């Protein structure tokens, strides 16, 4: 006698396994194992090419975006007679900026966790050797050997780190074609502007006064 096969779902019997398989396919689709179709190689290749192209486009766009603090540093210390210390410095000059009598707030964390101009690492934080922690105008000059990069002690370097314009003719967007720009160090007028090499406890004041119309 031929062996019969029973459907466990509806209790019907069939002469053989092929009959049961045909029954399950027709009546019980959930019992029929689904075949996994392989992903076409062409489709994988096309998606890979698409992702690579998108990645290259994104990188290209990012490369065109100007980074913070990458503007050109324009300082000239060749004629400065100040002796640059060879040992470590931790100085704190203070800067005050006044535009038409209004004091400009100098932000905290200038030069901290910045990009290309990182020159040192202090207490686990990535810093420029010229940076701020407070809003009172105190500039922190921390450098293990400034003689290797004396420009890092200049006032111009601080503005470079801040990514702001400063020279003998401009402070921010305010320029001498429409006003008067002066700088004072410890109460005395100073004409070095961006080239000035700061020293510990310096009191530096930059004043711009617009011309009256």
What does this structure look like?
With about 210 residues, the chain is an alpha+beta fold. The chain folds into 2 domains: about 5-65, no CATH class; about 90-210, Ferric Hydroxamate Uptake Protein, Chain A, domain 1, CATH 2.170.130. The protein is about 20% helix and about 25% strand. The chain has helices spanning about 15-25, 40-65, 155-160, and strands spanning about 5, 15, 90, 95-100, 100-105, 120, 125, 130, 140-145, 170, 175, 180-185, 190, 205-210. Strands 5-4-14-12-13 form a 5-stranded mixed sheet, with no helix packed on it. A 3-stranded antiparallel sheet has the order 3-9-8. Strands 1-2 form a two-stranded antiparallel sheet. The longest helix is centred in the first third of the chain and has 24 residues, at about 40-65.
Please outline what is shown here.
The chain has 213 residues and is an alpha+beta fold. It is built from three helices and 14 strands. The strands form five sheets. It has a five-stranded mixed beta sheet with strand order 5-4-14-12-13, with no helix packed on it. Strands 3-9-8 form a three-stranded antiparallel beta sheet. Strands 1-2 form a two-stranded antiparallel sheet.
């Amino acid at each position: 006698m031929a062996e019969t096969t029973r459907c466990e779902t509806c209790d019907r019997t069939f002469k053989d396994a092929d009959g049961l398989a045909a029954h399950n396919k027709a009546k019980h689709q959930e019992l029929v194992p689904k075949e996994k179709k392989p992903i076409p190689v062409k489709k994988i290749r096309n998606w890979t090419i698409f992702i690579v192209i998108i990645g290259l486009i994104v990188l290209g766009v990012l490369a065109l975006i100007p980074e913070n603090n990458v503007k050109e540093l324009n300082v000239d210390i060749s004629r400065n007679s100040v002796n640059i210390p060879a040992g470590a410095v931790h100085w704190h000059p203070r800067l005050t900026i006044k535009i038409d009598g209004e004091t400009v707030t100098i932000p905290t964390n200038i030069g901290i966790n910045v990009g290309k101009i990182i020159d040192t690492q202090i207490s686990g934080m990535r810093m420029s050797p010229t940076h701020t922690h407070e809003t009172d105008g105190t500039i922190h000059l921390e450098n293990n050997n400034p003689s290797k990069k004396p420009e890092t002690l200049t006032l111009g370097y601080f503005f470079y780190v801040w990514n702001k314009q400063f020279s003998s003719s401009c402070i921010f967007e305010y320029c001498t074609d429409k006003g008067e720009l002066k700088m004072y160090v410890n109460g005395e007028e100073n004409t070095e502007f961006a080239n000035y090499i700061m020293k510990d406890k310096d009191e530096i004041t930059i004043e711009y006064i617009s011309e009256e119309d």
